[in-house]
Amino acid sequence: xxxxxxxxxxxxxxxxxxxxxxxxxxxxxxxxxxxxxxxxxxxxxxxxxxxxxxxxxxxxxxxxxxxxxxxxxxxxxxxxxxxxxxxxxxxxxxxxxxxxxxxxxxxxxxxxxxxxxxxxxxxxxxxxxxxxxxxxxxxxxxxxxxxxxxxxxxxxxxxxxxxxxxxxxxxxxxxxxxxxxxxxxxxxxxxxxxxxxxxxxxxxxxxxxxxxxxxxxxxxxxxxxxxxxxxxxxxxxxxxxxxxxxxxxxxxxxxxxxxxxxxxxxxxxxxxxxxxxxxxxxxxxxxxxxxxxxxxxxxxxxxxxxxxxxxxxxxx
Length: 316
Ligand SMILES: C[S@@+](CC[C@H](N)C(=O)[O-])C[C@H]1O[C@@H](n2cnc3c(N)ncnc32)[C@H](O)[C@@H]1O
Description:
With 316 residues, this protein is α/β, with parallel strands linked by helices. The protein has a single domain, classed as 3-Layer(aba) Sandwich (Rossmann fold). The radius of gyration is 18 Å and the shape is globular. It is built from 13 helices and 9 strands. Helix 2 crosses helix 12, helix 2 (48-72) runs antiparallel to helix 13 (306-313) and helix 4 packs across helix 5. It binds S-adenosylmethionine. S-adenosylmethionine is lined by residues 11-12, 14-15, 18-19, 82-84, 86, 106-107, 110, 153-155, 180-182, 185-186.
């Protein structure tokens, strides 16, 4: 029990890491995010390869979000699993592209901190204020008109239905699930239960997952031992062996189909003008290191229902 709590604390600390990396890259001008600084203090310097990797991650995911919003015409919902301090909701509101509902889930200790930051910063809380609804807070949960932040351990599936109902979920709407570096921390059997449940409840949905891949090779093994030395068990790492295992994780758990790309492919599919711009932000001493990093992360997508299948076939 004590060991499990220590693991969970190390897992929750990965949110600080991800948020700091994002803030640092934003500060250098890789992409724009006027909201990340409300959640993260001044970060320490990160290597240029890391910053470019984060750029590819953020843009690769945004690509699917944009296609989904276009296809669902503002009538879809987004459910961010293990959302951490992600700012996607505020970025979408800023550009007038909000979905019908936006739900963020994470451990209660993380959502409590996120609630605190939201309450503290006028720019964040004011965005949630609408004429047609009040904002309800508890220590760990926040419910506004079309934004819900909910504390839950994703391994406890019995609570999920109840928590999603509190978040005014609509099982019949087109739904995009997002999991950015999350499932790798959840053991395979709990992930199977979660994916089966989601696929049975949401007939018209797409799952977008960003995480490690090619973990069995030498570079992958070094990445794993670095993460493990920080106390992260990586209970779901067996599904990060290859693009095939990433896809199979979905298809054996009830999803109609899936696809996956390494981040090398995602990076190369980004518009050339954007790549040229960010490649001038910082000099890269060793391009080889960037390629190796990008080869060890991927975006995997899975779908249920014909409409969202089309969105999932091609990257870029
Ligand atoms: C690497 S962070 C990524 C955060 C965010 N998705 C991003 O990309 O900025 C992983 C997140 O997954 C959350 N997480 C991992 N396992 C979880 C679980 N069993 N239940 C709820 N959240 C979990 C962690 O608390 C953490 O916030």
